[in-house]
Structure formats: C-alpha cells, structure tokens
Write a structure and sequence with these properties.
The complex is a heterotrimer of chains A (383), B (309) and C (387).
Chain A lengths: L3 E11 L5 E12 L4 E5 L6 H9 L6 E6 L2 E2 L10 E4 L11 H12 L4 H15 L14 H13 L5 E5 L7 H18 L2 E6 L2 H7 L2 E6 L2 E6 L1 H6 L4 H6 L6 E8 L2 E4 L2 E4 L2 H5 L6 E6 L5 E2 L8 E11 L3 E8 L7 E7 L9 E5 L6 E4 L5 E3 L7 H7 L2
Parallel strand pairs in A: 3-8, 3-9, 6-7, 7-8
Antiparallel strand pairs in A: 1-2, 1-4, 4-5, 9-10, 11-12, 11-14, 12-13, 14-20, 15-19, 16-17, 16-19, 17-18, 20-21
Helix pairs in contact in A: 2-3, 2-4, 3-4
Chain B lengths: L11 H7 L2 H28 L3 H6 L14 H40 L6 H13 L2 H15 L2 H11 L10 H26 L3 H8 L4 H12 L1 H16 L3 H7 L9 H4 L5 E2 L2 E2 L1 H33 L1
Antiparallel strand pairs in B: 1-2
Chain C lengths: L3 E10 L2 E11 L4 E5 L6 H9 L6 E6 L2 E2 L10 E4 L11 H9 L7 H14 L15 H13 L5 E5 L7 H18 L2 E6 L2 H7 L2 E6 L2 E6 L1 H6 L4 H6 L6 E8 L2 E4 L3 E3 L2 H7 L4 E6 L5 E4 L15 E11 L3 E7 L10 E6 L9 E5 L6 E4 L5 E3 L15
Parallel strand pairs in C: 3-8, 3-9, 6-7, 7-8
Antiparallel strand pairs in C: 1-2, 1-4, 4-5, 9-10, 11-12, 11-14, 12-13, 14-20, 15-19, 16-17, 16-19, 17-18, 20-21
Classes of the chains: A alpha+beta (383), B mainly alpha (309), C alpha+beta (387).
C-alpha cells in the first residue's frame, strides 16, 4: 500500500539578504494508493519544490511527510522507495539504454543479474523500446529518451512515481500521444503517481485528482471536473480551462450586476448566494457564451468581433461590448464552420445558469455554474 | 529525526550527535594536507626573518627567537630587486594584455564566425601551443640581435620617455616574443569559453545590422570579462615567472634591464656561499605582484572557472 | 515592400537534404506560419531567409531584391529567436537601441524616443533599465519583440518564440502577437511545431515534412481540405482518425467494420483499391448503447458501429474519448471522439458510434494524397449576424 500524506508541509528558503522566502506554505494532501495526482500551477507556485520534498531532494522545513505510517522527513532519497522522472530525463549519457535501466536495480537491490535483465526487457516491451536497448541516449530522439526515463522509473517497481514536467521537452503532437500513453500505463501499473506540470490540459486529462497551487499555497484539490465546474476561487477558475474563463469586475446594485459596458440582472436565487458582498467578479466560460443567436432579453448584449482564432473544429472569437471600454475583451467559442469575421456586429448571451460569481475582494467563489441535475454528472464532479 | 528551524541557541546534544568516525577522519585528512602545503611556505617566511646564525641553529619551520629575528634580509633584498621589479612589470603587463587580447580576438574569429579554412587556421594555433621554448631560443636570439635589432633601434626613443632609460628598450623584443608565444594558449582558452556561449547572440547582432567587429566589441568582449580574469592571471604568472626568454634576450643578471627572474638566482650568492635569509626574502618579494593579482581578480577567476565548467 | 518569393530553394548539409526544392510566395503584410515536426526544414528555411545559412540552390527575393548573397545586416529583416538572444550585459533599453544604431536617418535623441515608444507599445516601459537576467520569461520575450519592432523592418522572422513560455502565457501571447502584427502590418514568417499556434495566428499555413512543402493554404483549408495524409494528421487536435482498408465494390472494408461509400465519394475514388478513411474526432457522433446484447448489432445503421470506451480525457468544455472495437481490445485505440463537456461517459462503457458520410475524408493509401474531403456547406451553420 502506498498512501502518501502531506501534513502542513512547509518549505522556507533564506535569500541573500537574510530574509525568508516561503516557497511552500502548509500544504496538506492525502494521496490514495494507486491515485494519479497532478500538482498544477504557474511557474514559481511551489509545485516542483513540493515534489522534490517528496523525493528527498529538498528538506522539509516544517510539517510531516508520510508514506503509509512511515515518516519520511529525515529519510534520504535513496531509502524512500520512490522513483522520479525528471524534466530533462537525466539519463546517464555514457550508458546504454539497458545500462540506464539496470543501474537503479543494481545499486539498490540484491537481485541476480538474470532477474534484472528480465525486468528490464519486460519494461522495454511495455514501452515499445525493446529495439533500442543497446543504444546510448545521444542516439535517441526526444520521445525515445523520455520512454527510457520512464522505463528507468518503472523497472524499480517503487511505491510512488514522481514526475516533474516530463512532457515539456516534447513536440506538441508527441506530447498529446504520450499523455494518453502515460495515463494508460499508470492505470495498468496501479502505482501511486504524483505528476507536476504547468499545463492545465495535462492536469485535466491525466489526473484522478488535481491539486492547484499558487504562490506556495494550495488553492483547491478535487477531480478535474470539480475544479472546472466548481472552482473554489478566482485563481482556480482562471487557471483551469482553455481558453480561460472570462472575468468581468463590477458591483452589485440591488438585483443587478453592473459591469463595464453591460448590466446583468440576477435572479433572487442567485442574489441569495452572494451574502454581503458588494464588489463582485462575474465569470463565464467561453463555451457558455452564445454568439449571434436571435435572442432578446436582459441577458443579451450587443458586441463587436475583434479577432477570430480558427482552431479547425471550433473558433475562439474575441469580442468587446459595443457600449464598453475598448480594452475590455472577452472570448467565446463557436463551431468551426461558422463564418464570423473581425469587425462583425453581433449579439452575445450569458445564460444565468452558466455564470460564476466571485467576491471582488477575496476572490472566493460565491456562486458557481449550475450543472443540469444528472446523477452521472454529479458522480463525476464531486469527489 | 524532525527538522527544526534555527532558533539561535546552541544545541550541544545535536552537535555530539553529528560527530561520527567518518567526519573525524575527513577533518584529519584536511588538516594533514593543509599542513603539507603550508609548512614549506611558513618555513620560507621564517627563514626570511632570521639571521644567518639563527638559520643555522634552529629548525627550519621554527619562528625566530629574540636576537635571531631580523628585517635586514628583507631590506637588502628589496634594494637589490627594486630595479628589476620595475623591469618585470613594464615587461609582463603589456605582454599579458597583448597576448590575452589577441587571443580573445583570435578565438572569436575562429569560433563564432564562420569562414573557410577555419579549421586549418585553428590547427596552426594548436600546434603553436606545443612548440617548446628551448627549440626556438637560438633562432630567437639571432632574430632580435642580428636580423631585426629592434632594441638598438628603439633605444634613443625609449630614453626620451620619462622614468625610462635607454636600456629598457631591450625589453621590447621580450614583450613581443611573449605576446606571440602566448597567443596560441590564450586562443585555446578563450575558444572553449566562446563555444559555451549561444551562437544566437552573434546571429542576433548580425540581424541587428552590426558588423563582425562591432559584434566583438559591443557584445562578445563585454561578456568575456570573467574569462579575461582567468586568462590574465594565468598569462601574467607565466610571463612574469619566465626565465629562458628573458635570459636569452636580456642576457645576464647584471644587465640593467634584467627582470626579476634573472636577478633572483644571483641574489645572496657570494664567495662565502649562499645567504638563505636573503634568498628567501627575495623569493617572497618576487612573488608579491602575482599574489596581489590573484587577490584582486579572485572573484573573476572563480566566476570564469565556473563558466568553463 | 515586404513580399517574399522563394524559388526552388534547396539546402543540403553533407548528404542530408534539409530543404528540398521549396517554392513559396508570401504577400506583403501576410502572417505566414511555417509548421511541421522537428527536422522538417522549417527552421533552416527561416535561417536562409535571414541570411544565417546560404542556400545550396534556388533563389530568395525580399521586396523584389535578390537576397542569396546578401549578409543579414543588409536584408532589412528582424528576427525573434527561440532563446530570445538578449545581450546579457546590456539593459533592456540598450538591447532595444542596439539595432537602431546601425539604422540611418535617426539622430541620437530620435533613437532614444523610438526605444521608449516601442517599450510602451509592449508594456515594458518600466523595465527599461533592468538587465535580462532580472526579467521573467514573458518579459524577456517582449524585449526580444521590442528589439525586432524598433527597426521597422520589411520582414519579421520568428523562430518558435513562444515555446519557452508557460502554457497560459503562451495562449495570451498568441493573441497579443496577432494583434501586434495586425497593427504593424509587417510581413511575418513564423516557425513553430505547434499546430495550434499555426491555426490561430496564421493568414496562411505552410506545412512542411522532411524538407518538402506539403500544403500552403488558409487554416480553414488546411483543416477541412488537407492535401494529403500528412497534413490531415498534423493539423487538428486531437488528431484525425485514420482507418486503413480496401474498397470492395462500393463499400470500404476495414479490419473491423464495413462502411458503404456515397456516390460522389466513389466517383472521386475511381478505381483505387487501397484506401484510408479519415474522420475528425469532433465529427464522430457518440451515443450510449442501451444494451450490450450482441444481437442488437443488427439494429446498427450503415454508418454506425459499436465500440468500447478505453480512456476518457475530460477537458471541461469537451471530453476526448478513446474507443476500441469490442473484438479487438488492443492497446492501440481505433478511434478518438470528442463529446460535449456535459456528455459524460465512463471507461468501460459500450457506445454506439456514428461516422456521418458527409464528413469523411478519403485518401489514397499508397500516395497519401487526398481523394475526397469532407463536404462543408458554406452557408450551413452560419451564425446569424445583425449588421
């Protein structure tokens, strides 16, 4: 069993001037046996530092790190039964693929040579790199090197896999393929995995659960769809989802949200959820913004198309309110077949069940999108 | 074992906890090697400040006691060497600057610019590093004395410069020789540094419209500062401490233009034998310029080594 | 003017042909993206345009002038490098000013003014006195852009400028770059391996593979009317589904299913036997199977089949499903399909999949050329606009 627990883990560095830099602040996480957890956040949010503390490459300043019941805080990296895949792969350049993959087993176990050889060959079969066993890293492509790095971790049959942005050095296409493959592999092997990335697409598609970090603090832990449909705060809402959620700052005036260039009436039910907040941020995801359909009503506004980004299967349309500031733009997603062009005038609608409302000061979510009541969906969304 | 943040109080228990046999052995080894390298140095200093009787009677590394202590050796050595210090410095500094600068330019041209026959040129430079001093001594002497007597030609001009005497012109061929001899090794050193720089810097400069020379002057030269520190220290030490060329071209410790390396062997020698006290003092005094240089450029040196690695 | 013409451009490195007989016309003010996998020759082509590599054969014209033998300094181009190549010992101000020093027609004060002007356009005016190592990745990238813009060249060349940025920053910069290029109206040649960048930013895309040009067309055309298998596979995320098979009379026979072909498709296919059927993931319709009784397979329509869901990738706004045939649950997925974000499926579910006949692409299996591309009605799905 390999349950990994972080209990108020904190990491503090001292900088050159003698001041303290808090890289990671009181993070508590419970990672289940066999779970694929993704640590995601922008550069400098502390995700890599957290991973390195799990690996034993950084010391824990405060708090406790446990694997099952075993406290890992003072345990050296070699003794943790953890395998890591580095962003730069860190393959031994002078060793062959076979040598690279056998090294860990030779150093940390008493296994006889035949068994090591067998394990290596099994793993290379699984990864589809059996014909590369006698090559050196310098003779391999990026994708192949990445598989070797993976294989090196897998062959040690550890309790936990740690992966530090392993896909970021790959071509876009290769990255998409490896994403699926990594997921499949992890499903088969059933090893607890902690995966660090700055790419929210990787987080969404690969994780059983996602832990969003910003500036050393944990913002939210939940299933990908949970973070997507029920973000805890403005940061998570803006970070998860591509293209990003649209945000409009404004204030509450009676039952109306007054934004820049538009007024948005709120129903009583929505109004009740806001508490005493007066400064608000309204959020709506681009795919929920309906463009151009002949609707009238209080939640439909005149807009002008600024830029259209064709993706093939869909278009990302950048618009601005006709009555609003020129600088305030928002995006909507339309089907790939629609022929909207820059400069066109059209209407946009923001359905009330799709909007999110956040406290203008704290950023906390006050009202999230209403999901159609469907037990199957609820099962996906809630942990 | 939990990690505690520093509280400022001294924890004896944890100190004792950290002591183990391996640590003790490590420290013992360090102390031993420290001694191994420093004892000769210390001995030299001690000898320099002892009288002759004291040198004969006491242990080499023991400090002088009472009457055994004297600064007379140092004073004497200083008087003897003062002229040659001047000679050494006015020879070494231009020679070092010259070889380092030309080396850097050559490395730039061979590494960061692309042109035909580059590799051939580079091979010539590499070969130049391996030419032994001894092999060129005779041709060198012949060249500077018979074929192109630059020293004699420059004598009147040099004499007219304030602080200089006519005989200092003898140092000019020496400077030129050192520059020429030093260029290959400086080029090689700079080349490895330039190879580690991204080519895109030069490319960006080209696209920005700068000529190759301007790119060197405005982009590459300023970034080479750490490397300059390293190569300068290395070259200066080589040139300052060099004996053979100096001996060949300036001939003799009694020549007024003699640099320090020529004078040193003669110091303290007399019919009654060698005066060690004077010798040691002279040796240390001679080492002072190099020492000052190291101290002044220490940070650059370390940075430069780091960059190379 | 900044129009570019490449005629039969070839570059050889020893025995390797990096760029093979490339001919391309780029209009003035156009944003052309050169896209393709690593090693396809796109960077080499860009460097030849810059003058950092000399062509082995062929010609390069910028603004009508023959450029083959001109050094980069004399080409009136500006370049943004992947690693930005900022001069590390100079401040931002000096970095941007450097290129201006060689430009004629400016006094020193005018140069200073121009630097500030450009810095303000890019939002980095407050960073002017900092050194590159004090800046974040995104800021460094803007300085690199500023250095290019300040010279007001005829052509911008960009070599994967966004690849070192965080995913979110990349998406923001994409839009900003596009806006900027629109404003400045300068011919831009942009190299990337990322097809999303190509699709969203380009006026036209030039797809390259192994040194050869595969297709030059608008993003829309490359997506919906690919010339060949390579373009169809490269453009589009998730990748197009490709099914190999043979034609038997008027039916396409794959390994696990048969698919009757429409009359117009058959006409384009002609006598070909070995075919590849292509269908984009978002065009596949997925419906939950109400029963997994195999007898019900008879109830399947001509263009329907049963499949099992092996992997589900939730993206929030949509889901990508990996599907395989019930009788062949191998590790290789047979199809990928995209469903709406709210349409949720679980791994292991059995679903009914429809491949609409008007949305298929057909390729010649031997040559890879597209024989039939999907129909897209210009007028259908037209978003109603109020003028």
């Amino acid at each position: 069993m390999a349950r990994l627990t972080l209990d108020d883990v904190t990491k503090v560095y001292t900088d050159e001037g003698g001041g303290d830099i808090v890289a990671v602040e009181e993070i508590s996480l419970d990672i289940d046996d066999g779970e694929f957890l993704v640590l995601v956040g922008p550069s400098g949010c502390g995700k890599s530092t957290t991973l390195r503390m799990m690996a034993g490459l950084e010391t824990v300043t405060e708090g406790e790190l446990r694997l099952e019941d075993r406290v890992l805080n003072g345990v050296s990296a070699q003794d943790r039964d953890i395998a890591m895949v580095f962003q730069s792969y860190a393959l031994y350049p002078h060793k062959s693929v076979r040598g690279n993959m056998s090294f860990g087993l030779e150093e940390s176990t008493d296994l006889p040579d035949d068994e090591i050889r067998q394990r290596v060959e099994e793993t290379t079969d699984m990864l589809g790199i059996s014909d590369l066993l006698d090559r050196k890293p310098g003779q391999l492509s990026g994708g192949q090197q990445q598989r070797v790095a993976l294989g090196r971790a897998i062959v040690r049959d550890p309790e936990v896999f740690l992966m530090d942005e392993p896909l970021s050095n790959l071509d876009a296409k290769l990255r998409a393929e490896m994403r699926t493959e990594l997921q499949r592999l992890q499903g088969e092997l059933g090893v607890t995995t902690v995966y660090v990335t700055h790419d929210q697409t990787e987080a969404m598609t690969m994780g059983d659960r996602v832990a969003v970090l910003d500036d050393g603090e944990l913002q939210q832990v939940g299933t990908p769809l949970d973070c997507y449909h029920r973000p805890n705060n403005l940061f998570v809402a803006g970070f998860i989802g591509e293209p990003s959620m649209n945000f409009f700052d404004g204030s509450l005036s009676g039952d109306t949200f007054r934004g820049d260039g538009f007024d948005y009436p709120l129903s009583g039910a929505t109004r009740d959820q806001l508490g005493g907040a007066s400064g608000l941020t309204l959020g709506i995801r681009p795919e929920d913004v309906t463009v151009g359909e002949r609707r009238s009503g209080q939640r439909t506004f005149d807009a002008e198309v600024v830029v259209v980004e064709p993706q093939g299967n869909e278009n990302t349309v950048h618009l601005r309110f006709v009555d609003g500031d020129e600088g305030t733009q928002f995006t909507a997603t339309t089907t790939g077949q629609s022929r909207v062009e820059a400069g066109d005038r059209t209407t946009v609608s923001f359905p009330e069940d799709a909007i999110h409302l956040f406290d203008g000061e704290t950023g906390d979510a006050l009202k999230n999108r209403e999901l159609p009541s469907n037990r199957a969906i609820d099962a996906f969304v809630s942990n | 074992m939990s990690q505690s943040s520093s509280t400022g109080s001294f924890d004896v228990a944890s100190l004792v906890e950290d002591v183990n046999l391996r640590r003790v052995a490590q420290y013992a080894l360090v102390v031993f090697f420290l001694g191994f390298f420093l004892v000769p140095l210390e001995t030299g200093i001690m000898t320099a400040i002892k009288t002759n009787e004291s040198v004969a009677r006491s242990l080499p590394f023991a400090p002088p006691v009472g009457e055994g202590f004297t600064l007379g050796n140092i004073q004497f050595a200083l008087e003897q060497l003062s002229g040659s210090f001047f000679n050494s410095l006015i020879m070494s500094i231009p020679a070092t600057i010259g070889s380092v600068l030309f080396g850097s330019m050559a490395a730039y041209g061979l590494t960061m610019v692309n042109w035909r026959a580059q590799m051939g040129m580079l091979m010539l430079f590499v070969v130049g590093v391996f030419v032994p001093y001894q092999a060129v001594l005779v041709p060198l002497a012949r060249f500077w004395n018979n074929i192109f007597p630059l020293a004699r030609m420059l004598e009147p001009m040099v004499a007219s410069i304030p602080f200089f005497q006519g005989y200092h012109a003898e140092l000019v061929p020496l400077v030129i020789t050192h520059i020429a001899y030093g260029i290959p090794i400086c080029t090689i050193l700079f080349r490895s540094y330039y190879q580690s720089l991204p080519n895109s810097l030069v490319e960006a400069g080209k696209i920005d419209g700068a000529s190759i020379t301007k790119i060197y002057r405005r982009v590459i030269l300023p970034i080479s500062k750490p490397m300059f520190g390293v190569v300068f220290i290395y070259q200066f030490t080589q040139i300052y401490n060099e004996f053979l060329f100096a001996f060949t071209l300036v001939t003799g410790s009694d020549a007024p233009a003699a640099p320090v390396t020529l004078v040193l062997p003669a110091i303290g020698a007399s019919t009654s034998g060698i005066d060690f006290g004077i010798r040691m003092s002279a040796a240390f005094l001679a080492a002072v310029p190099t020492l000052i240089l190291y101290v002044a450029f220490a940070e650059q040196f370390a940075k430069g080594l780091r960059t190379e690695a | 003017m900044g129009q570019i013409r490449l005629t039969d451009l070839t570059k050889r490195f020893g025995d390797t042909v990096a760029v093979d007989d490339l001919s391309l016309d780029i209009d003035d003010e156009e944003f052309l993206v050169l896209v393709g996998p690593s090693g396809c020759g796109k960077s080499t082509t860009l460097r030849m345009l810059a003058g950092l590599e000399t062509p082995t054969s062929g010609d390069i014209y910028i603004g009508g002038d023959h450029m083959n033998y001109r050094v980069p300094q004399n080409r009136d181009i500006a370049m943004v490098f992947q690693d930005y190549a900022l001069y590390p010992h100079m401040t931002v101000r000096q970095n941007i000013r450097f290129g201006l020093e060689e430009e004629e027609g400016y006094t020193s004060e005018e140069r200073d003014e121009r630097v500030v002007e450009v810095a303000e356009t890019l939002g980095i005016a407050d960073l002017l006195d900092r050194k590159p190592d004090e800046l974040s990745g995104g800021q460094q990238q803007r300085v690199a852009l500023g250095r290019a813009i300040v010279r007001d060249p005829e052509v911008f060349l960009m070599d994967e400028p966004l690849s070192n940025l965080d995913a979110k920053l990349r998406a923001e910069m994409r839009t900003e770059l596009q806006n900027l290029q629109d404003q400045l109206a300068v011919t831009t040649v942009y190299v990337t391996h990322n097809q999303t960048e190509a699709m969203t930013m380009a006026d036209r895309i030039a797809v390259m593979d192994d040194g050869e040009l595969q297709q030059v067309a608008s993003p829309f055309e490359c997506y919906h009317e690919p010339n060949n298998l390579f373009v169809a596979e490269f453009i589009g995320e998730p990748m197009i589904n490709l099914i190999r098979g043979t034609r038997s009379e008027s039916t396409f026979v794959g390994e696990h299913f048969s698919y009757p072909l429409d009359a117009d498709v058959l006409e384009s296919v002609g006598g070909r036997e070995d075919l590849v059927l292509g269908i984009r993931p978002e065009d596949i319709e997925v419906v939950d199977a109400t029963t997994d009784d195999t007898a019900a397979d008879d109830a399947l329509g001509d263009h329907e089949l049963r499949m099992d869901v092996t992997v589900v990738e939730p993206h929030g706004d949509q889901n990508v499903l990996h599907l395989s045939h019930p009788d062949q649950p191998s590790a290789d997925d047979a199809l990928q399909a995209v469903t709406a974000g709210m349409h949720l499926v679980t791994r292991g579910d059995r679903v009914t999949v429809t491949i609409p006949p008007d949305k298929i692409h057909v390729f010649d299996a031997e040559t890879g050329t597209a024989v039939h591309n999907r129909r897209h009605d210009q007028e259908a799905d037209f978003t109603q606009l109020e003028q």
